[in-house]
Structure of DEAD/DEAH box helicase:
Amino acid sequence: MTLFTDFGLAQPILKALAAEGYEKPTPIQAQTIPYAMEGRDVCGIAQTGTGKTAAFALPILHRLSQSPKPRQRKSARVLVLSPTRELSGQIADSFRAYGRNLRLTTTVVFGGVTISRHEKELANGVDVLVATPGRLLDLIDRRSLSLRDIEILVLDEADQMLDLGFIHALKRIVTLLPKDRQSLFFSATMPKTISTLAESFLRNPAHVAVTPVATTAERVEQSVMFVSTGRKQALLEVVLRDQSIDRVLVFTRTKHGADKVVRSLDKAGIVSAAIHGNKSQPQREKALAAFRAGTCRVLVATDIAARGIDVEGVSHVVNYDLPNVPESYVHRIGRTARAGATGLAISFCNDEERAYLRDIEKLTRLQVPVMPLPEGFSAGPMGGEAAEPRREQQRGRPAGHSRGHQGHGQPRNTDPNAERGPKRRRHRGPKPANAGQPNGGQRPAQAQPAQGQRKPQGQPAQKRSEHRGDGAQVAWLDKGPRRR
């Protein structure tokens, strides 16, 4: 198929595609749409940015338009599941755009917003429901949604859905679906173990793989810079001061790391925003809107958000931290070079991340070229980097000093000639009479009362001390034996 008109799609859909400027289908669309229009199950694999959403949305809209049915209360005809809120919203927008000339309703539900709002939208039923698994099950448990009328099930980013904690939710959802349904799985990567699991959800599927698994986008120019952990932030600021960088996505491994990068960039006068799972839905939408509008040219994100960011004009992707899952690298750099454009992906790599880099090169079967550091920039100590300070240091205690004996967590000094400080001992009871004291342990300064006599009034109490676990010395007045 060389044109969308060759598929036999309904005229209202072709009219909407013309308005969107679509003329020729991408390879994944050309191979998938005929199978889907026949009603077959499909397992499609294609790299990010190749048009997978249209590959399943167009045949679904055609089927709904050719077989109209009255909407059933608290139900839907099509269910599309995705792992993130951002991706769910973009899928729903695509259905609305391609079906603008059809009398079909599309609703998206996800966590982070009031569930009563979703209940009102589903009260009279919808044609296409796009959802994240968690919020979908919430609606089912509240009896605000039934899956008895689902005709088509779509899993977008299927490897993410099955591999990162959604498997139990998916198994429960599948048991609530009609057995006589069409199922479509799409993803940029499909490891063998995940593919085997996906096969149990599909019936005699048509396999479509237009590119090798985990192949990176061809128009993305990749490079890596070797730099110590402590110099990554300074290197990022140097890179971002290049005015030729129009719109850049920076990826970190953790949510805390993303917030830390944004705070440092703000101090350097570089406008940026963070998007990750700890941000509320209004905060995420505000950050994405500013990024799309260009008022914020730097967006710092985590891997979970990598699959839901579809913004045109992303010129650069910076891997501030290399991902420990090599497939995530493919999704990260796939955020640039979309819709035929070109892009640049730069990765910062320290000594600990060299193993991650080797895994990425093994998966993609490509060697990432090394880019020299900016002139005059120091990479910092690459060998034997100090670990991130512990929380004790943040509370005012020196690094490596934890509760317990002094020096815990520090390397032991094995030099026999090295100077050693006095040993500290925790008192667990009264000392022996002659333990380390002169004159056989006698106390010449003060005579002790005879046995059975009470301590005379006005006699000062004995001062005793012991060492706490954190090395500090605690003193108190010993007023005599305690009754047990």
